[in-house]
Amino acid sequence: MKRWILLFVCITLFASCKSSPTTNNTSNTSDTTVILDHALFEQNGTPSLNGWTFHPAGTDDTLDFEQSAPPGMGTWSYKLHTSDFPPVTNALVRNYTGLVSGIYSFTAWHRMKYILAAGTFPEGYISVTKLSGGISTVTTQITTDDTAWHTVSLLDTFALQPSDTVQLLLSAGARTTGQHGNPLWFDDITFERLP
Fold this sequence. Notes:
This protein has 2 domains: 1-30; 33-194, Galactose-binding domain-like (Jelly Rolls), CATH 2.60.120.260. The protein contains 1 helix and 13 strands. It has one helix spanning 2-28, and strands spanning 33-39, 42-43, 46-47, 53-55, 65-66, 77-80, 91-97, 102-112, 125-132, 135-142, 150-158, 165-171, 184-194. The strands form 3 sheets. Strands 1, 5, 6, 8, 11 and 13 form a 6-stranded antiparallel sheet that branches. Strands 4-7-12-9-10 form a 5-stranded antiparallel sheet, with no helix packed on it. The protein has a two-stranded antiparallel sheet with strand order 2-3.
């Protein structure tokens, strides 16, 4: 009987020692931290900025929601007009503080009204800015001229202090004198820290 008890204890100890490293490896794996998960410019079927702030380029520029959205993603999107006052643009901005250092991904669905000749005017873009101690570091990704909905994404790595601000920006660009503007719709925004 003592042999069976000793054998049982040895097998149990062997099994627990063997499974321990697997458990530790699993607990050390970090997942993606989602900050914005397919955020839309609507709430309960009604147009909404949902935490974004509109920064007009001029006094005549106003909020402009429109019933156009990426496939399967609600009804409303936000229509930004090309600015008449370069380099200032009409923009939607959202700020975050208290984020931790890491690799961040920013993705937005967008479409344009017209496909214009290359170099007609500065394109629309998305950007992520790190604001730290009065110093700004900006990463920008230009949108593509396309009248159909598709995504634009950028990745950036930030070393952040708790007081630093990370700013997301959506812009339709600015036109030069005498050129026709090209409105740009944005919707379905995702912002996340990658593992």
